[in-house]
Design goal:
This protein has nine helices and eight strands. It has 245 residues and is α+β, with helices and mostly antiparallel strands. The chain has a single domain, classed as Muramoyl-pentapeptide Carboxypeptidase, domain 2. It binds zinc ion. Zinc ion (ZN) binds next to strand 6.
């Protein structure tokens, strides 16, 4: 049972120290480096001690299935070349821009088509809150969340996937986390993306552009409902384009 795996069992005090140290070491990179989402493991390991590397490897070997999460393992994929950088995405009310995101070109193009259709029908647009994340970057995101939820491993695994399991790092099923231009996000709990017009529109129309909701309510994967997280699948898009051209 998932509930058996609390922080005391899986993550001990020395693990915690190492995770905090890894987060400290990568903090500046996360703030300053535009390309941090493309970081590979050799780059991450360069700044880590041998004990920290061992800890990262321990997490890379965690079997999600043992923790009640029934999602496929895609494996640690190489960071692809030629991803498109998406800069200067702006919210309507917030001054802060979304940090640079990356997507494979075909996914970015499909997103642009989806967005123009959405704009035509609703006068609204969606922003990309999170696109491609390299497996090494995913590891850092996982550690950040683990730290945020007080090292409660069973909580963290349901919310943030470990490298090799995330569709954000698997370009064949590249995921995008959408947000509205008002800034309704995955993090801000006072807003609910599933209650937006944009989400309702996606439910009806996203498939036409090759996007599919990965984790609906009460999904079979044991993952929380993620209304913002949509995976892109090429083949359907090709079929659809055939029918409209
Ligand atoms: Zn996501």
């Amino acid at each position: 049972m998932i509930s058996c795996y609390n922080q005391n069992i899986f993550i001990n005090a020395s693990d915690k120290k190492l995770i905090i140290s890894i987060l400290k070491k990568t903090k500046n990179k996360l703030k300053k480096v535009d390309r941090v989402r493309l970081m590979d493991f050799s780059e991450l390991f360069r700044s880590l001690s041998s004990r920290e590397k061992v800890l990262v490897k321990k997490f890379l070997n965690v079997n999600f299935r043992k923790h009640g999460i029934r999602i496929p393992y895609f494996g640690i994929q190489k960071v692809p070349k030629n991803l498109i950088a998406i800069r200067s995405q702006k919210y309507v009310y917030k001054i802060k821009e979304i940090e640079t995101q990356y997507l494979p070109r075909r996914v970015y193009q499909a997103y642009k088509k989806l967005n123009s259709a959405l704009y035509k029908e609703l006068g609204k647009r969606l922003l990309i809150l999170s696109g491609y994340r390299s497996p090494a970057y995913q590891m850092i995101v996982f550690f950040q969340y683990l730290n945020y939820c007080n090292f409660n491993f069973s909580k963290a695994v349901k919310r943030i996937f470990l490298p090799g399991y995330s569709e954000h790092g698997y370009v064949k099923k590249q995921a995008i986390d959408f947000t509205t231009t008002e800034g309704i996000s995955t993090i801000d709990k006072s807003f609910d993306f599933s209650k937006t017009d944009e989400y309702r529109w996606l439910l009806k129309n996203a498939y036409k552009f090759g996007f599919y909701l990965s984790y609906p309510r009460n999904n079979k994967f044991g993952v929380i409902f993620e209304p913002w997280h949509w995976q892109f699948r090429d083949n359907r898009l090709k079929d659809y384009l055939k029918t409209v051209n």
